[in-house]
Every structure is written in C-alpha cells, then in structure tokens.
C-alpha cells in the first residue's frame, strides 16, 4: 500500500504505508536515537508531531508491555527508512504495525529519511500530512500553509484528576504537563509519596497539600501557551524545593522573568552531550524539546546557568540564587537513553532533606 508524506513547502515523499490508514497532520520532527521507538511513540511530549527516526531499521524488537511512557500515544505519525514486520525479542508481545493500527497512528516506510532529516535541519521543522495516493497535492500544501499548531497540547495530555503513587518517604507533588512515566518511576524508586496533579492546579491547592517538594514534568508545545502554570510556579517558588524537567524547566524560567524561543529543529535523541559547569562533568543525555531558554534573558532573574549543551551551547540547566529550585532541559530519567544524569533525582531528595532540616531548626529556635 503506497502512502505519501506531503510537506508545507510542496515536497512529497512516497513510500509504503503501515500502521493505521488514517491521514493525520502534524509538525514533522526527527529523533536520532538508535533504539527506544516504543518509548518515543508513547512520550506525551511528541503530541501531534510526526516523528522521523534516523536509525534505518525500526520494529525489529517489536512492542512489549513494560516500556511505555504513557498509556495512550499522542503522536500523529511515524516515518522510518525500513520497517521490520518480523520482530524477534523474548519480550515482544506484538509487531509495531499491529500496535500502530490499534492506536490509529499512520506509519510510512521506504523513503529517504536522511534527505528528510537534512531538509528539517536546513529549513527547520515543517508541517506535513500523511496521505493516500489519490489526494490533490497542491490542495494539501495550501491547507498545510494555513494550518496553525495547537496551543492546548498540555491540556490534551495532562491528567484530568489528581492521583497518588504512595510511598513512605518525602511527599512530592508532581505537576503533570505531559509526564513520562519514567519520572514517576524514579521518584517511587526513592520511596517518595507522590501525588500527580493536573497542569492547571493552583499554587494554593498545591501548598495546601503540604508537600516536601514539587516536581514540574516534561510536556509538549510552547511553554508560553501555559500561563496558568507560570502563575502557579511564581506562587510556590521559595515555599518548598522545586525540580523541573524539560517543559518544566522552560516554565520555571518564564516564571522567574526569563524568556524562551522556538529552536530551528530542536533536540530529539538519546546521545546529546551536556556539561555541568560546576564540575565540568559531561553526561550523555536523552532530549526531546523544540523550545529553549534564551541565555541573554537571564540577567536580573535570580537564575544562573548550571548546564550547557556541547553541540550548540544552549541552556540545559538552571538554578535559583536564593530559593531551593533547579531545573534541567534534558531527561535525567532517560527512557530511552543513557542514565548518566540519574543522580539529579538524588540531588532533589537531598534538597528536600536539607530544607526540612532548616525548617525544623527554625521552629526549635522560634
């Protein structure tokens, strides 16, 4: 079954369709990871995007029950060079094609993914649509040029109701902007008593829960489209320790008065080198973001840069000069990718313990 990808600049890629036959529109991006397509497909940060995988062979280890990062995938398409329809892995429970059909996600194989990736790198991310062969290409191109990207992606992927993940350790409120389950796994592994709350939970509602710390999760889209989250962060900053990841990092920067901007083609992959400035330690990191904090906007905000990307020098980590709060642009929970930066969750635990100790001493001296 032939299928085509039509881009807003008029470029057409014709290949073999797999997965769902539905035609979907989305922002076409690329990911450079060699493995982890199941985690990528189920990462809520890819909401309404069509993901191109640069590694040439995809599907060879199938789909298993354990490696999902969310319950319902929200990607609008998958593009690969070669699709394997006969997976071989002891954990595999179904083929990738079957999974995509179940979740109504169209796939396209057999195109020149290197050419597509180079086009995105040269021109930036492009809107595109997966189509059957009988459509009018020019009509699709005209429609794509008029298509506006969604501004409510966080609302679509965030939990609608708060729910607990009980533990006997520190009480953490995890604000879900499109949370990967890997973040929740890391907190529960450290015996945290986690309460996951919706993206639009207010500062007062969070503080009434009396948490030991607040985690700001990853998520999709432009951070400036979530003003209620910015207001919430301003209300809790300085009250309890705070740790933000990816979109949470960008929202934290905006709440402190810094600015963000859209990147040309973003960082998406599992091998991005990041340097921690305090130690000169370099970690390989998993990343998935299309926006970045503008370093020139930081003076006067009380924020300082803690980590930088070695590939392009962009901001990868921040900390507040007064309040117990720090954030990173990358994914320390990995899934997929290396776990070099996993220690940041331990740093968050230490920050909560230190803050508790200071609070107890103040109470004793009062």
From TrEMBL:
<dbReference type="InterPro" id="IPR050472">
    <property type="entry name" value="Anth_synth/Amidotransfase"/>
</dbReference>
<feature type="active site">
    <location>
        <position position="333"/>
    </location>
</feature>
<feature type="binding site">
    <location>
        <position position="291"/>
    </location>
    <ligand>
        <name>L-glutamine</name>
    </ligand>
</feature>
<comment type="pathway">
    <text>Pyrimidine metabolism; UMP biosynthesis via de novo pathway; (S)-dihydroorotate from bicarbonate: step 1/3.</text>
</comment>
<feature type="binding site">
    <location>
        <position position="290"/>
    </location>
    <ligand>
        <name>L-glutamine</name>
    </ligand>
</feature>
<feature type="active site">
    <location>
        <position position="331"/>
    </location>
</feature>
<keyword id="KW-0315">Glutamine amidotransferase</keyword>
<feature type="binding site">
    <location>
        <position position="250"/>
    </location>
    <ligand>
        <name>L-glutamine</name>
    </ligand>
</feature>
<comment type="function">
    <text>Small subunit of the glutamine-dependent carbamoyl phosphate synthetase (CPSase). CPSase catalyzes the formation of carbamoyl phosphate from the ammonia moiety of glutamine, carbonate, and phosphate donated by ATP, constituting the first step of 2 biosynthetic pathways, one leading to arginine and/or urea and the other to pyrimidine nucleotides. The small subunit (glutamine amidotransferase) binds and cleaves glutamine to supply the large subunit with the substrate ammonia.</text>
</comment>
<feature type="domain" description="Carbamoyl-phosphate synthase small subunit N-terminal">
    <location>
        <begin position="1"/>
        <end position="131"/>
    </location>
</feature>
<comment type="subunit">
    <text>Composed of two chains; the small (or glutamine) chain promotes the hydrolysis of glutamine to ammonia, which is used by the large (or ammonia) chain to synthesize carbamoyl phosphate. Tetramer of heterodimers (alpha,beta)4.</text>
</comment>
<dbReference type="InterPro" id="IPR002474">
    <property type="entry name" value="CarbamoylP_synth_ssu_N"/>
</dbReference>
<dbReference type="InterPro" id="IPR017926">
    <property type="entry name" value="GATASE"/>
</dbReference>
<keyword id="KW-0665">Pyrimidine biosynthesis</keyword>
<dbReference type="Pfam" id="PF00117">
    <property type="entry name" value="GATase"/>
</dbReference>
<feature type="binding site">
    <location>
        <position position="219"/>
    </location>
    <ligand>
        <name>L-glutamine</name>
    </ligand>
</feature>
<feature type="region of interest" description="CPSase">
    <location>
        <begin position="1"/>
        <end position="170"/>
    </location>
</feature>
<keyword id="KW-0067">ATP-binding</keyword>
<keyword id="KW-0028">Amino-acid biosynthesis</keyword>
<keyword id="KW-0055">Arginine biosynthesis</keyword>
<dbReference type="InterPro" id="IPR006274">
    <property type="entry name" value="CarbamoylP_synth_ssu"/>
</dbReference>
<comment type="pathway">
    <text>Amino-acid biosynthesis; L-arginine biosynthesis; carbamoyl phosphate from bicarbonate: step 1/1.</text>
</comment>
<dbReference type="InterPro" id="IPR036480">
    <property type="entry name" value="CarbP_synth_ssu_N_sf"/>
</dbReference>
<feature type="binding site">
    <location>
        <position position="247"/>
    </location>
    <ligand>
        <name>L-glutamine</name>
    </ligand>
</feature>
<dbReference type="InterPro" id="IPR029062">
    <property type="entry name" value="Class_I_gatase-like"/>
</dbReference>
<feature type="binding site">
    <location>
        <position position="288"/>
    </location>
    <ligand>
        <name>L-glutamine</name>
    </ligand>
</feature>
<feature type="binding site">
    <location>
        <position position="45"/>
    </location>
    <ligand>
        <name>L-glutamine</name>
    </ligand>
</feature>
<dbReference type="InterPro" id="IPR035686">
    <property type="entry name" value="CPSase_GATase1"/>
</dbReference>
<dbReference type="Pfam" id="PF00988">
    <property type="entry name" value="CPSase_sm_chain"/>
</dbReference>
<protein>
    <recommendedName>
        <fullName>Carbamoyl phosphate synthase small chain</fullName>
        <ecNumber>6.3.5.5</ecNumber>
    </recommendedName>
</protein>
<feature type="active site" description="Nucleophile">
    <location>
        <position position="246"/>
    </location>
</feature>
<comment type="similarity">
    <text>Belongs to the CarA family.</text>
</comment>
<keyword id="KW-0436">Ligase</keyword>
<keyword id="KW-0547">Nucleotide-binding</keyword>
<feature type="binding site">
    <location>
        <position position="221"/>
    </location>
    <ligand>
        <name>L-glutamine</name>
    </ligand>
</feature>
């Amino acid at each position: 079954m032939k299928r085509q990808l039509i881009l807003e600049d008029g470029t057409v890629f014709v290949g073999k369709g797999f997965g769902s036959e539905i035609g979907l529109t989305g922002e076409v991006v690329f990911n450079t990871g060699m493995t982890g397509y199941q985690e990528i497909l189920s990462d809520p940060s890819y909401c309404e995007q069509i993901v191109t995988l640069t590694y040439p062979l995809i599907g060879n280890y199938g789909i298993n029950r354990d490696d999902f990062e969310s319950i319902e995938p929200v990607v609008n398409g998958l593009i690969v060079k070669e699709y394997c329809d006969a997976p071989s892995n002891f954990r595999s429970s179904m083929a990738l094609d079957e999974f995509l059909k179940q979740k109504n996600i169209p796939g396209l194989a057999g195109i020149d993914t290197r050419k597509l990736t180079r086009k995105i790198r040269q021109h930036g991310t492009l809107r595109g649509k997966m189509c059957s062969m009988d459509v009018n290409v020019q009509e699709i191109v005209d429609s794509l040029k008029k298509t506006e990207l969604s501004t409510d992606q966080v609302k679509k992927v965030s939990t609608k109701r708060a729910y607990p993940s009980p533990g006997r350790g520190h009480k953490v409120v995890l604000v879900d902007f499109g949370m990967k389950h890997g973040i929740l796994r890391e907190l529960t592994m450290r015996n945290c008593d986690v309460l996951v709350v919706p993206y639009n939970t207010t500062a007062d509602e969070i503080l009434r829960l009396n948490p030991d710390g607040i985690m700001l999760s990853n998520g999709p889209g432009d951070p400036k489209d979530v003003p209620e989250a910015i207001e919430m962060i301003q209300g809790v900053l300085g009250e309890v320790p705070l740790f933000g990841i990816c979109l949470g990092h960008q929202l934290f920067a905006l709440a402190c008065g810094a600015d963000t901007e859209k990147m040309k083609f973003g960082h998406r992959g599992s091998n991005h080198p990041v340097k921690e400035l305090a130690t000169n330690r370099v970690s390989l990191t998993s990343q998935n973001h299309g926006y970045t904090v503008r370093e020139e906007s930081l003076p006067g905000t009380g924020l300082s840069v803690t980590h930088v990307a070695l590939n392009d020098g962009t901001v990868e980590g921040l900390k507040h000069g007064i309040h117990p709060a720090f954030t990173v642009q990358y994914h320390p929970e990995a899934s997929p990718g290396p776990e070099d930066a996993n220690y940041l969750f331990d740093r968050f635990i230490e920050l909560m313990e230190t803050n508790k100790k200071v609070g107890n001493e103040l109470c004793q001296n009062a």
